[in-house]
């Protein structure tokens, strides 16, 4: 399970939170700790909860011991994620004793209270008011209008120079392996004006890269009964592209209208980067997943995207060992990957998830076969990545600086999303750089997933 960086957890000292949020003031201020697990969408939920609490007069504690209560924002997508969430709850209970649980796993309160009956409250995903009510009950607020001031962008758990922008909740897909729609409901898109106001505030506060997230980004706005255009994501992309910062699109399903999104990337409005969850390539496997089963048409779409925007970076995730997956079906996936030549690839071994319809499918794949197929898939994906990065040696690329130390600057190119893709390490000409700077770099070395170069 993906977990937010360790220095964002209250069990680790976090000087940035203490500096930015003012965790110490004269007198006794009620304090709350936060453990945020799971995907970037959950991280945005944590930021919203902390922003509301900070505005009400709460301080944010970077340590369990310094908190009057701890909120654990859980992940519940896979059994392994549920286990890690329960471990985090147990750790917070042992260290603090007063724990409020929220997030995706909160949709199964009996599962949580059965393992940890001493938690103060359990709320589900994006139930902000219920979380606040639970905090008020456990630790009443003590606002002070003279010091409880919030920056326009609110509390952020990411570095200052990039931020996630959630544009919708829920999903209308019915993939058999996924329970997210059961947890988070059907698609509910935020008003475009509200999204743009948040984006503008982020830019005003110094954000240099906005990462657009949702469960289904390309479906944004299609749930509106009266919408200004057939596909509002195209309008939103054009508006975001006017802000003068990097804009990166995540979780874009390959609907046909994505072809109209790619020209916005080619024109420089948003980054030429598409994160698309293909999941598999064999039509029978996709049908068992209850996903669109048109791998050949997908290859045609990829070719069309690349004709329009030759520099586009394509990222995707796949599942191997799905129930009923034969060796022939898996080989089709490998052959498809050879032809698609995706730039960034992630892969998961199938897991049963409580409540998922795929659990009832016949012919589950043995664990050792899943592991062997995963290794073969990743070997091929690594070889593709290595060849693509080697082709960048000698080229000039734009990069955003994430961190600087005595040895150099850790950066990302337009092809790299934070924490999931590779890095570009600048070991010459990095003096004077600070996080958020956008620089030009000449690439002089490449590995399987990372690049090295010199600032121009």
UniProtKB/TrEMBL annotation:
[4Fe-4S] cluster 1 binds at residues 39, 75, 104. [4Fe-4S] cluster 2 binds at residues 171, 175, 178. Pfam families: Radical_SAM, TRAM_2, UPF0004. Gene3D superfamilies: Methylthiotransferase, N-terminal domain, Nucleic acid-binding proteins, tm_1862 like domain. Transmembrane segments: none annotated. This is Ribosomal protein uS12 methylthiotransferase RimO. GO terms for cellular component: cytosol; ribosome. Residues 30-140 form the MTTase N-terminal domain. Belongs to the methylthiotransferase family. RimO subfamily. Keywords: 4Fe-4S, Cytoplasm, Iron, Iron-sulfur, Metal-binding, Ribonucleoprotein, Ribosomal protein, S-adenosyl-L-methionine, Transferase. The gene is rimO. Its EC number is 2.8.4.4. GO terms for molecular function: 4 iron, 4 sulfur cluster binding; aspartic acid methylthiotransferase activity; metal ion binding; protein methylthiotransferase activity. It is found in: Cytoplasm. One of its GO terms (biological process) is tRNA modification. Catalyzes the methylthiolation of an aspartic acid residue of ribosomal protein uS12. Residues 157-387 form the Radical SAM core domain. It comes from the Bacteria. The keyword Metal-binding applies. Its main location: cytoplasm. Binds 2 [4Fe-4S] clusters. One cluster is coordinated with 3 cysteines and an exchangeable S-adenosyl-L-methionine.
